[in-house]
């Protein structure tokens, strides 16, 4: 029984053709695939280890990030409110308020030093460099999950990171304090104006949803902007809503039940807040990376079924698939048809997107394929990198095999090395 269930999740689930099913049956199969694929990739991509590294980087940047959040909150007149709310949460959850108070003091000191003079300039540079550094690490992890090998340019880093730096603190402020502020004002207005009392349940519901909505928007924007590839908005929204909800539930459970407070307090005493904070930070990083896996799984759950475990594909099979990709692009180009995007190549040849991305990376490096801009939108499309009349099967295979770095020097003499290479060329 267990073996049948295992075989179904490993093979049977991916052999189902969703296009041949009615929508009512395809819907549960689709999201079962997304769930299974997301958790499988979460393990295969070692996201727990990535979360540990991200926790370390986040810990180093916590004070500058708080300084930036408080700086933006101060512009809206919400700094004192946020500090008060953070201290109330720390006292309620028994998070060692003196530790939290000192952390807030460090961030305020850094913010105060950024007001004028040479030291202020160094402080501003430190704040921005730290925030950009942590976002750079997040982008690296996301690129690994999406298997993007081409890094973002410096100009795009500046523009995209600036958007996140402005958007993220505002949404965090909304999630952490705006609901309390608005709730207080609405309560007073409802008491004075009887007409609004009819809408009190609706207003209360909207205020309860507000923290969730702000986190949903923040995570959705993160999944759209941080990977150096075009992510479908539908996939990013799904991942943002799911992981944002998980994040809020974990927050509520963590504070409500004060997980680990008594045991850690008995061992660490006044330092108990540190391991608790690290555990909370590690869990949040895992949730964010899980959302990235959900977005990738939703984006590729159909094409993933063409070959569930392509990681063990043989070298000859990979070479054959590279020829199929090159042949498809050459044929379309010679007919004057539009160049294809990554997803279109995957659907046409029924090859997983992740494998197509790897093949295209090698073909571009070999000079057989080049990137271009699709006619609609800003999608990246692909077309032959050479004159189609000069691309034969032998030329394509030779270029594909010779792509990459040369062999490491052998311990044998140069004459013997040349003889080995000559013999291999004759065999090919």
List the helices and strands and how they pair.
Blueprint: H1 2-15, H2 23-44, H3 47-60, H4 62-75, H5 79-92, H6 97-112, H7 117-146, H8 154-192, H9 200-225, H10 233-257, H11 261-268, H12 273-300, H13 315-334, E1 340-341, H14 342-349, H15 353-365, E2 369-373, E3 380-384, H16 393-402, H17 414-427
Antiparallel strand pairs: 1-3, 2-3
Helix pairs in contact: 2-12, 3-7, 3-12, 4-6, 4-7, 4-8, 5-6, 7-12, 8-9, 9-10, 10-12, 13-15, 13-16
Summarize model confidence as the mean pLDDT: 75
Q: What number of structural domains do the residues give?
A: 2
What are the low-pLDDT stretches, counting only 5+ consecutive residues below 50?
Answer: none
How would you sum up the major sheet? 3 strands, antiparallel
Q: What would the principal axes of the Cα set say about the shape?
A: globular
* Computed structural class: mainly alpha
| Rg over alpha carbons | 27 Å
Q: What is the H-and-E element order? A: HHHHHHHHHHHHHEHHEEHH
**Number of strand segments:** 3
Q: How far apart are the first and last residues' alpha carbons, in Å?
A: 48 Å
Strand content: under 5%
Assign a percent range to the helix content.
over 70%
Number of helices: 17
Order of neighbouring strands in the sheet with most strands? 1-3-2
């Amino acid at each position: 029984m267990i073996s049948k269930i295992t075989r179904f999740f490993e093979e049977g689930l991916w052999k189902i053709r969703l296009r041949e099913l009615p929508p009512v049956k395809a819907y549960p199969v689709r999201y079962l695939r997304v769930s299974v694929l997301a958790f499988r990739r979460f393990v295969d991509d070692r996201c727990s280890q990535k979360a540990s590294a991200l926790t370390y980087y986040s810990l180093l940047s916590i004070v500058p990030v708080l300084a930036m959040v408080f700086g933006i909150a101060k512009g809206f007149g919400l700094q004192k409110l946020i500090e008060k709310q953070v201290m109330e949460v720390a006292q309620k959850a028994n998070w060692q308020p003196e530790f939290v108070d000192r952390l807030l003091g460090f961030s305020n000191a850094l913010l105060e030093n950024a007001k004028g003079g040479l030291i202020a300039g160094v402080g501003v540079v430190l704040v921005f460099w730290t925030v950009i550094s942590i976002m750079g690490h997040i982008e690296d992890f996301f690129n690994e999950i999406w298997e993007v090998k081409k890094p973002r340019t410096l100009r795009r880093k500046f523009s995209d990171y600036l958007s996140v730096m402005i958007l993220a603190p505002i949404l965090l402020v909304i999630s952490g304090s705006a609901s309390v502020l608005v709730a207080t004002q609405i309560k007073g207005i409802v008491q004075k104006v009887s007409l609004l009392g009819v809408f009190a349940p609706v207003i209360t519901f909207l205020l309860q949803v507000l923290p969730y909505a702000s986190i949903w928007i923040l995570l959705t924007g993160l999944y759209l902007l941080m990977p150096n590839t075009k992510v479908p908005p539908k996939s990013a929204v799904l991942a943002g809503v799911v992981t944002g909800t998980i994040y809020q539930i974990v927050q509520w459970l963590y504070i409500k039940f004060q997980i680990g407070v008594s045991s850690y307090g008995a061992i660490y005493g006044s330092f108990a807040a540190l391991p608790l904070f690290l555990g909370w930070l590690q869990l949040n990083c895992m949730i964010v990376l899980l959302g990235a896996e959900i977005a990738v799984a939703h984006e590729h759950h159909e094409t993933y079924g063409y070959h569930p475990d392509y990681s063990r594909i043989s070298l000859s099979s990979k070479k054959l698939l590279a020829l199929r990709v090159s042949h498809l692009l050459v044929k379309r180009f010679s007919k004057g048809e539009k160049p294809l995007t990554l997803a279109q190549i995957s659907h046409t040849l029924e090859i997983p997107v992740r494998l197509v991305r790897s093949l295209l990376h090698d073909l571009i490096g070999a000079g057989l394929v080049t990137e271009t801009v699709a006619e609609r939108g800003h999608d990246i499309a692909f077309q032959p990198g050479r004159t189609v009349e000069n691309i034969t099967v032998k030329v394509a295979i030779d270029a594909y095999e010779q792509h990459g770095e040369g062999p490491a020097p052998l311990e044998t003499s140069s004459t013997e090395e040349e003889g080995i290479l000559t013999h291999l060329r004759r065999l090919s």
